[in-house]
Amino acid sequence: MYKMEGLSFLSIIRCFIFYLSIELSLATLTINPRRFIGDGEKFVSLSERFELGFFSPGNSKSRYLGIWHKECPGTIVWVANRNNPIHDRHGVLCIGNYGNFILLNRTKDIIWSSDKSSRKIKNPVVHFLETGNLILGESSCLISSKSYLWQSFDYPSDTLLPGKKLGRDLKTNPERYLTSWKSVDDPSSGDFIFKLDIHVLPQISVYKGSMKISRSGPWNGVSFGGIPTISSSILRQDLVHNEDKFYYMFEIDIPVIIKLNQAGEMQCLIWKEKSGGWDIMYTVPFDSCGMYGKCGANGVCSIDKTPICMADVG
Ligand SMILES: *[C@@H]1O[C@H](CO)[C@@H](O)[C@H](O)[C@H]1NC(C)=O
């Protein structure tokens, strides 16, 4: 259900129908760049689990282009113009001639855009995969994960979705890491980042500026130490580290997302169909000992002692 690579036969058919409808709507539009969606319109993913559109977070009146959970619109998983809001409801998302998304405000100023391709793209196509990955590609319905021009999964906000990679392709893309929101009303870049560290042993760390405040690991070949384990029958984790790239990715058979919150905590959330809300499966650091360097270089941290830090007298 949460597979990233490879489209099933059914989704190829759906994709084809979808492709035709995009072609039709693009054909009827004469403006240049081509209009894709405007504020008030929504674009639904193949799984009908995610929606792309304009939103105002919390008590804010500013408008942002983003992707959210269809069943829970308050759960924003990606924001395009997080550092440059639109101040009215006239934002429009367009597709440029060079295969790039362009977000315009009422006066047609560029608020945000994705990178241009090096050549003109005649038939740009948008795919919104069931994973929540928004992909811009060229003409063919069968955009593989290699032939896309741009994908939202390469530009994470504060949420790690199954199938989304943390890390870096050393030849091409910028590093993919999570950046917390400033507040619930403001998705602009906050104080914390959450990234894959590959120095001696791979681990995942939260930084505040250049200061590491927590870490989970190291990677033991199967999972990261210090993170509660989930049955491997439903969870597949992948850590790749070679001269071309390093990344961490997970896929899971239950609806789970990982969020970096404004306090710098990494929260693993599970969707509860019955209550129509998210439950916290775990938070990292899940106790005070998980804070990096909590007891200094030679201290021993014991969560069941007071004070929790003791000098290591060996
Ligand atoms: C559109 O954006 C530009 C550049 O940020 C800004 O100067 C202009 O005032 C904005 N227009 C509206 C209607 O907000």
From TrEMBL:
The keyword Lipid metabolism does not apply. Pfam families: B_lectin (PF01453), S_locus_glycop (PF00954). SUPFAM superfamilies: alpha-D-mannose-specific plant lectins (SSF51110). This is Bulb-type lectin domain-containing protein. Residues 28-149 form the Bulb-type lectin domain. One of its GO terms (biological process) is recognition of pollen. Keywords: Disulfide bond, Glycoprotein, Membrane, Signal, Transmembrane, Transmembrane helix. CDD domains: B_lectin. PROSITE patterns: BULB_LECTIN (PS50927). InterPro entries: Bulb-type_lectin_dom (IPR001480), Bulb-type_lectin_dom_sf (IPR036426), S_locus_glycoprot_dom (IPR000858). The chain crosses the membrane at residues 6-26. It comes from the Eukaryota.
